[in-house]
Amino acid sequence: MEHRRYEIVNQNSEYLFLRDISNNTYCKVDYTYSDEHWQAWSIHEDKPFFNYILVDDKPDTVIFGVPFKNGSRASTSTADKFPTILRQASYKLLHPNQYPDSIPLNLFHLDTSKLIECGKIMDVGNVTMNGNLSERESISQVTSYCVKNSLPFICVGGDHSYTFDVVASLELLNKPIVLWVLDAHNDLYGNESHLDHGNVFSHIANLPFIKAIVQVGSRGYRTVGQIVEHPKVIQIPKAQFSSELMKHWLQEFSDYANYISIDLDCLDPQLFPYVDFGVPGGFSRAELLSIVDMIFNENGQVVGVDIVEGTEGGSVMKGDYDIPLEILLSILNQFFIHPKKEGLYKSDYSRKGIEF
Ligand SMILES: [Mn+2]
C-alpha cells in the first residue's frame, strides 16, 4: 500500500487543508479542532517552522536544521534534537499560508506593541546524510545554494562544529567575511587534527577568506594551557562588553560581509539552561537581541546566521524554548527589514527554483 505524507497548510475549526508532499497537490478534510489534536500535530517532525509552507520559490529567508552532535565533546549531548524542538516551539505561532499565495509571516510583539515583519520564509527541513553525501557535504550543498541564489539563511544546530561547514561554503561570495560569535567559550582549544565544537574557530580562522572573528561573551575560568590566541580572533569577554566597544569593532569591519554565530550558552543559564556546557553570568535576552540588532544596523551586510548548541531538557509548552524562538524571529525580522546592500551579491540578483 502506498503511504502518503501530508503537511498542514491551514486549519480552522472545521477543516484541515493538507498538501500531499510527493504529488504537490492540496486537499481539504473535515477536522474538529481541540487542544489534544494540536499537541498531537505539534510533535509531527515534518512540519516546517510556524507551519509556514512557501508555495512559490521566492523566500526572504531560508531556514534549515542541522540535527547533528558528532562534533560535541559531551557524549550524551542531545544537540541533534534542537532543530525539531525549536520547530515545535514555533507551532505556538501557527502561521499557515493560504494556497496558492504565500503570505508574509507577520507577528505582533506585545512588549513593544509593534508589528514584526518576517517576510516569506522557506524551511527546507533538516539537512540529512543524503545518498553519497555526508552530513558535512549536505550542509555545504544547502549553504552554497543560498549563497548562489542571494538568499539570507538561518541554520539551526546542532553542535557548534558544523558552523565550520556553513562558513566554509561562504567562500563562494568572493568577499572577505567577518564572523560575530556570541558564546560563553572561545572554541579555539583542542586537538587541531580533529574538528569539534571546542576548537571550531581555530579551524575557521585558518580559512583564507575569513578577515576576522569577533567573539563576544566568554566568561569563567580556564587553565592557562587552554588559552589560545589567533591573530584573526578578537575577544570581548562578557565582563568587558559594552555597546561602545562593540560599535568600535563594527566600524573597524564595516566594509566586509558578516556572518553571525549564536551559541545559546552565551545566554545566562538561569534564562536558558538547555545547553551542554553552561556557564553562569551570561547575557540576558535583551542584551543578546541588542547585540544582534547592532550588527545588522551598523554593518548591514549579514549573509547568514546560525543558532547552535541548544539541547533537550525543557518543555516547549512551558515556554522554556521561547527565548531561542524570539532570537529566530528577531533575525527573520532583521533580514526582512534590511534591504540587501549593493555589492554584497552579484548585480544580476536572481533566484532560481528550489533544487539542490
Ligand atoms: Mn560554542
UniProtKB/TrEMBL annotation:
What's a GO biological-process term for it? putrescine biosynthetic process from arginine, via agmatine
Q: Which PROSITE patterns match?
A: ARGINASE_2
Do you know which Pfam families this protein is assigned to? Arginase
Q: What is this protein called?
A: Agmatinase
Q: Which InterPro entries match?
A: Ureohydrolase (IPR006035), Ureohydrolase_dom_sf (IPR023696)
UniProt organism field = Priestia taiwanensis
* Transmembrane segment boundaries: none
* GO molecular function per UniProt: agmatinase activity; metal ion binding
Source taxon at top rank: Bacteria
Q: Which family does it belong to?
A: Belongs to the arginase family.
